[in-house]
Amino acid sequence: MFRTAVVVGSIRANSLNRKIAEILIGMESEGLGLHLVEIGRLPLYNEDLEGDPPSEWQKFRASMTASNALLFVTPEHNRSVPAALKNAIDVGSRPFGASVWEGKPAGVITVSPGAIGGFGANHHLRQMFVFLNVLAMQQPEAYLGGASEFFDQNGALAAEETRKFLNHFMKAYAEWVNRSLAPPQQSIVTRPIRAGRHGTFDESQSAPRIEGMTPTLKP
Ligand SMILES: Cc1cc2nc3c(=O)[nH]c(=O)nc-3n(C[C@H](O)[C@H](O)[C@H](O)COP(=O)(O)O)c2cc1C
Q1: Where are the chain's structural domains?
Q2: What are 111-136's pLDDT values in tens digits?
Q3: How far, in Å, CA of 21 to CA of 150, rounded?
Q4: Distance 176 CA to ligand 1 centre (A)
Q5: What class is the 4-181 domain?
Q6: Within 6 Å (CB) of ligand 1, which residues are found?
Q7: What is the pLDDT of residues 32-68, one digit of tens each?
Q8: Distance from C-alpha of 43 to C-alpha of 90, rounded to nearest angstrom
């Protein structure tokens, strides 16, 4: 069983993103251990505080360190990530060398009442992930636009298509997490290989040993 931190980029009480995140948590079926990690009370990142870090930072960092995987569900603010989410990412990324994000698999879903579904926030987040070495799932992308129409009066999803898409996303995400966290496989090439005049050889000039294959050398 994994532990997957779900981070909602909105700190608004009636957040559409939080509703989607809660639905995703309810859908869990593949041992992801999804749980919400709150970011709304994190003091603004300031390196001066690292000598005696605020308790909220410490709790957040501990919770993230204990998580194997990440799922971000966020709105877009001015075509980028909301300040609360940027702050959480900054807090988690320091002190230098102790980033809580390092090497973790992640999914990104952006949700907006607007037409383009938070595309700008989605990709600004992915840009940060390059630097932070977060392994963001590439496909399927999830830009959920028109989100103010998603819910019925009881707060349930109004359209079956939305649920289907979220199911599809979560299936791919579970596969991504499982693949990313699987123990490394031994290389199928058992000896070092170098290029030779007549093809590709191993260091002892015999045919390369590749398990399960009969090597053929081109003349
Ligand atoms: C400061 C601010 C900037 C916003 N900028 C965008 C934007 O760039 N693109 C967009 O689609 N919606 C934008 N919105 C609207 C949000 O998408 C909308 O408020 C959404 O409901 C927020 O998500 P939530 O319901 O999860 O809180 C903005 C809202 C605020 C308060």
Answers
A1: 4-181, 186-219
A2: 999 999 999 999 999 999 999 999 99
A3: 13
A4: 29
A5: alpha beta
A6: 10, 12, 15-17, 75-79, 112-114, 118
A7: 999 999 999 999 999 999 999 999 999 999 999 999 9
A8: 11
